[in-house]
Design goal:
Structural class: mainly beta
Order of helices and strands: EEEEEEEEEEE
Helix content: under 10%
Radius of gyration: 13 Å
Oligomer: single chain
Number of strands: 11
Distance between the termini: 37 Å
Number of helices: 0
């Protein structure tokens, strides 16, 4: 499975961005897709996950109500819509794929930088 993320950039506080991640290769084996972020000096954090077939989602409290993960199976693409962005959302964002329901993400895309600043 290969993953290609895009869509990062610079946005003002309160603004929105949409990240995209296109999967290729053995996409039929994907069980869960996730978006992670890592800020300098901080641990990598899961910010959203979605079941590839059923569409059930997960969000931590820090982004719940502001971030929305979705998928387009026909395009093998997962999206992360980020609204009401805050400076603390600044990080490198990565998409990842798990082939099981245990959130063991073994496949990673390259990161895309999101900077929230005025």
């Amino acid at each position: 499975v290969q993953l290609q993320a895009s869509g990062g950039g610079l946005v003002q506080p309160g603004g929105s961005l949409r990240l995209s991640c296109v999967a290729s290769g053995r996409t039929f084996s994907i069980y869960t897709m996730g978006w992670f972020r890592q800020a300098p000096g901080k641990e990598r954090q899961l910010v959203a996950a979605i079941n590839w077939s059923g569409g059930s989602t997960y969000y931590p409290d820090s982004v719940k109500g502001r971030f929305t993960i979705s998928r387009d199976n026909a395009k093998n693409t997962v999206y992360l819509q980020m609204n009401s962005l805050k400076p603390e959302d600044t990080a490198v964002y990565y998409c990842a794929a798990s082939l099981s329901d245990r959130y063991d993400f073994n496949y990673w895309g390259q990161g895309t930088q999101v900077t929230v600043s005025s």
